[in-house]
Every structure is written in C-alpha cells, then in structure tokens.
Design a protein that fits this description.
The protein has 2 domains: 77 residues, Tetratricopeptide repeat domain (Serine Threonine Protein Phosphatase 5, Tetratricopeptide repeat, Alpha Horseshoe); 52 residues. Helix content is 76%, strand content 0%. It is built from 7 helices and no strands. It is globular and about 40 Å long.
Length: 129
C-alpha cells in the first residue's frame, strides 16, 4: 500500500492518543476515500466510532457504522489479532454474542494464546447476557 496511506493512518492514531478524535476520524476517512481497501484505516475508523458507543445513549447509526468498519477491516485482514479482537468486542457489546463467539472460534493463528484470549473475550459477553 502507499506510504501516504500508512503515514496518514499513523497520524490518525497519534491524534487519537492525544484525544483529538475528530481529527483521527477525518484522517481515517480521508485515507479510505483514496484507498478503500486499506485495513488499518478501517480499523482506526471503527475504533473512533466505537469509542462513541455508550450504554446510556444508544445511537444505532454510530453502532452500525462502527460494526461495518470493523467488518471491513476484518475482511481485509482476517489474520490480524487486534482487528479481530475489535470486532469480537463490539459484537459482544452490541449483544451479538453468538456471532462474536463464531468470529473468535474461526480466527486462525499459529499463536494458540491469541485464539484462546479471543474466545475468552467472546464468552465473557455471553456470560453477561
């Protein structure tokens, strides 16, 4: 992928860490406007949107957009632990626990620890319901 996409996505992550969430989201969307198949930008967008998901004020549009962003990132990088974990956590939080467990169970990695952790996270949401 392009160095431009990489640098802008990294800058977005830095903005996120500094608490500049609007700038981080804008950079993710800017990258995706040019490179719609760049998984790290989809993940950043999903993280930014998911950070707005709140139990006290449910917004189905934001929740749906965050889920779609994580799904796109996961479809592009199904072998990435962090992308898969983001999707599993959001699905679990949204009450889609069976799907969260399925995503965790289907994760393929040479690291057994990573798969076990994903399965544990997914099952924790199931136990809460």
């Amino acid at each position: 992928m392009s160095a431009w996409a990489y640098v802008n996505t990294r800058m977005g992550r830095l903005f996120r860490r500094m608490g500049h969430h609007v700038k981080a989201e804008r950079l993710a969307r800017k990258v995706l406007g040019v490179f719609p198949d760049y998984a790290p930008a989809w993940r950043l967008l999903g993280i930014e949107l998911a950070s707005r998901v709140d139990e006290s004020h449910r917004d189905e549009h934001i929740e749906s957009e965050a889920e779609n962003a994580f799904r796109r990132a996961h479809a592009l990088r199904p072998d990435d632990y962090y992308t898969t974990r983001n999707l599993v956590c959001l699905l679990g939080w949204l009450g889609k626990t069976e799907e969260a467990c399925l995503v965790a169970d289907c994760f393929v990695t040479p690291e057994r620890r990573e798969k076990a952790e994903l399965q544990e996270v997914a099952r924790a949401y199931t136990a809460k319901r």
